[in-house]
Amino acid sequence: MIRRIIFFSLLAFPAFAEPDGAMIYADQCAGCHAATRLGGTGPALIPESLGRIKGDALTSLIAKGRTATQMPAFANTLSPADIAAVAGYIASPLATPPVWNETDIAATREMTDYTPATAPIFTGDPLNITLVVETGDHHVSVLDGDSFAVLDRFATPFAVHGGPKFTPDGRFVFIMSRDGWVQKYDIWSLKEVGRIRAGLNSRNIAMSADGKWLAVANYLPTTLTILSTADLTVKKVVPVMGRDGTPSRVAAVYQAPQRETFVLALKDLPEIWEIATNEDGGPYSEGLVHSNENGMEEALGVERGLFARRRIAVSAPLDDFFFSPDYRNLIGTNREAETGVVVNLDVGREIASLPLPGMPHLGSGITWDRDGHKVMATPHLTEGMLSVIDMTDWSLVKTIPTDGPGFFLRSHANTPYVWADVFTGDNKGHIHILDKQSLDIVQTLIPEPGKTVAHTEFTRNGKYALVSIWEMDGAVIVYDAATFKEIKRLPMSKPAGKYNVWNKITFEDGTSH
Ligand code: DHE
Predict the structure, then answer these.
(1) Residue 148 reports pLDDT greater than 50
(2) How many angstroms separate the alpha carbon of residue 235 from the centre of ligand 1?
(3) What are φ and ψ of residue 162, in 5° steps?
């Protein structure tokens, strides 16, 4: 009887109704994250941007806040039911896909009024600078590659992802956040030049071979934004869709320097796009052929001029690429597949396939010379192994068991070793050192047992290897790359990727591009 009274009371009094997530959002969150949920001073709060932060992780983040950011803890302001309601609201898709066109992008452009230096304002080698992305508190540290002194430490947009891209002379660098902000920084002057929001949910960036254009791969909206590197103005927004109008997210964009093109991995279309970055549309946009479904070669509709686009048909969408050093071939996979395909970009079709189970992370692949052959190696995100592939005949040379799934590989022309991390599982924090010729693991470093240790970068001369202790109270460890002895430890806030200017602008074999 009592239970029935309570039940009727609940129906009669809406005060007991479920909390309204949208109202709580408007009241508590919109000030920083915008009424549109597309981000303001705080990041966008939409499923595309939240990524793996869902369920309990999301409610806990709202309740406890996020250290080293402006995000406060709401546990004392909102009840658990309120927090669950607002979490449900921000985890739900937007009712209509947001518009983010050239005008919207241009309106976000902010340039600083700094005076560019006429020469580096520091005494070290400007081409031996290494940038350390500190994801703990969203900063980048600028390291002198000889003394390992921190020359500057600047704030980045929230949640930087992927490798920063340097101009060919190594003077300027561009950094992208998952929320689509692109920041330009002047290494000689140690000053930010400006920033612009090129997309709402972005994947990575690529610079054209001549250093004039920066392409931004977007998931949301489904576009490629092309910026002028000189002043960050928008040059073009390319809608990405199939011939029938089906939109596709852009999984990644890469620079193919010898081809003078951008190459796009598309998440939702069985096509690879190549976009010319020279004025005449490049040798690769004219007279191209590809195989149609009957295996027949057919002429492609030819576009000409700067940003001319070429579509290359593939059997299934490919979202992760690795390129041969001459950029004539790429290996592509998608996250679900157990095989990789080799696509020859000159003829514009698949020419081979390879077994690659366990989610290879081709974006982290590197190459080196072995027995007169160019080989490439890739870690796997879900299996403890490295695959080594012969790039002359695309055969699998060896599968090397590791202590757990890894994320990044690095080497350098001046070292006989490859450094491979174990990123997840019980042995996360192990760093394997692999002999490039015997393919044997010659040493395993465990610098901080139980802590994540990942991502190696070498100095310009390959003498030192820098490794991240990927924790909030983390550090960059400088190792002697020949003896594996620790030389120095620099405290950092969750340091992630590290990028040496010289290794990046010369497309060093041992670095992922
Ligand atoms: Fe990355 C590079 C894709 C998750 C840290 N990551 C890249 C690149 C791609 C990619 C395509 C190459 C871009 C470039 O440098 O131009 N990453 C993906 C994914 O699809 C994946 C698995 C899922 C996702 O959420 O996007 C993914 N990546 C992560 C992480 O969880 C990492 C470890 C932490 C983070 O910051 O999100 C991470 N990715 C990195 C880093 C690089 C990177 C540090 C640059 C590596 C380099 O040395 O160049």
Answers:
(1) yes
(2) 26
(3) 80, 170
Answer yes or no: is 100 within a domain: no
Strand order in the sheet with 172-176: 110-111, 191-197, 181-186, 172-176, 165-166
Q: Is residue 460 part of a domain?
A: yes
Domain count, the chain: 2
Domain assignment present for residue 19? The answer is yes
Distance CA 108, CA 233 (A): 10
What distance in angstroms lies between residue 27's CA and the mean position of ligand 1's atoms? 34
Which pLDDT tens digit goes with each residue over 188-206? 999 999 999 999 999 999 9
Query: Residue 363: CB within 6 Å of ligand 1?
Result: yes
- Full 3-state SS string of 351-374: EEEEECCCCECHHHCEEEEECCEE
423, 407 contact by CB (below 8 A): yes
Q: Which of 90, 121, 146 is the last residue of a domain?
A: 90
Domain boundary among 44, 59, 90: 90
Mean pLDDT of the chain: 90
Domain that holds residue 70: 2-90
User: If 0-12 CB within 10 Å is exposed, 13-18 middle and 19+ buried, where does residue 105 land?
Assistant: buried
Helix (H, G, I), strand (E, B) or coil at 104: helix
Question: Distance (Å, rounded) from C-alpha 308 to C-alpha 233?
Answer: 20
Q: Is 204 in the pocket of ligand 1 (CB under 6 A)?
A: yes
In sequence order, the 6+-apart residues with CB closer than 8 A to the CB of 446 are: 429, 430, 431, 453
Q: Cα(400)–Cα(379) distance, rounded to whole angstroms?
A: 10
Is residue 133 within 8 A of residue 158, CB to CB? The reply is no
Distance, CA of 295 to CA of 315 (rounded, Å): 12
Is any atom of ligand 1 closer than 6 Å to the C-beta of 31? no
